[in-house]
Specification:
- This is DUF2293 domain-containing protein.
- InterPro entries: DUF2293.
- It is built from seven helices and six strands.
- With 231 residues, it is of the alpha+beta class.
- The chain has a four-stranded mixed sheet with strand order 1-5-6-4.
- A hairpin with a 2-residue loop joins strand 2 and strand 3.
- Helix 2 runs antiparallel to helix 3 and helix 2 packs across helix 5.
- The chain is elongated.
- The mean pLDDT is 88.
């Protein structure tokens, strides 16, 4: 903090974290971790009648705001940044009881948010079940020969929330024939053909798909015709 220049004017009381060792100009206490500038001279928090306040570092906006709301007396704490040539906020000083009340309010809000997240999670789970059932029903409509358990598995896999799979695309959520068929094709490709083994053996993806295309089409034709795997 080069000469002890007064920080820029702000609304309310300001306390400075000095960069150099400073002593109180009134009681000579020091070196001071925090001080108040009065007419350019440093004062310790006790001499400035702020010694009973506690420091709340910056970072939790809600806790800071509520602490200041609850505190009859508060101050903003700043420190000079030499590189940027400006004072920057470090936190606030507030009454200890005010901080405790603010923490209780934030904890109550956190609990309310936790309960809301739980409700939202349960709601999303119900929606996911309904969507997977609708997706499975559409598979069975388009491919009546697809076994019911396979249809459920395909629908469940394709519709996992956040997976980025076809069931979660706009077309998938709309249960379009293209999206549903794409999910079935992918399932058949990976489950009923040697596609994965071809990839693992180094066969390029497009070539691997070409090799198993006839097998996929055979299964799809049978399912569309109402012929199950056992049929």
């Amino acid at each position: 903090m080069a000469p002890l220049a007064t920080p820029p004017h702000r609304t309310g009381l300001l306390v400075v974290q000095p960069l150099k060792r400073r002593h109180c100009g009134e009681c000579q206490a020091g070196p001071l971790h925090m001080l108040v500038l009065e007419d350019g001279a440093p004062r310790c928090l006790d001499c400035a009648d702020l010694g009973h306040l506690v420091f709340l570092p910056r970072g939790d906006t809600a806790l800071t705001r509520r602490s200041r709301e609850e505190s009859a007396l508060s101050a903003v704490v700043v420190r000079f940044n030499r590189r940027r040539s400006r004072y920057e906020r470090q936190g606030v000083l507030v009454e200890e009881a005010a901080l405790a009340r603010a923490e209780e309010r934030c904890l109550a809000d956190a609990e309310a948010r936790r309960r809301r997240r739980m409700r939202d999670a349960r709601r999303r789970a119900r929606e996911d079940v309904r969507f997977a059932e609708a997706f499975g029903a559409e598979i069975r409509r388009l491919f009546p020969g697809c076994p019911a358990d396979r249809a459920r598995d395909i629908a469940g896999h394709a519709s996992v929330r956040g997976s980025g799979r076809v069931g979660r695309s706009a077309a998938g959520r709309a249960l379009t024939e293209v999206a549903v068929t794409s999910a079935v094709v992918a399932a058949v490709r990976h489950t009923d053909t040697p596609y994965d083994q071809l990839l693992m053996s180094g066969v390029p993806r497009h070539e691997a798909r070409r090799r198993i295309m006839a097998m996929v089409e055979t299964t799809l034709r049978a399912w569309r015709a109402g012929v199950s795997e056992a049929g």
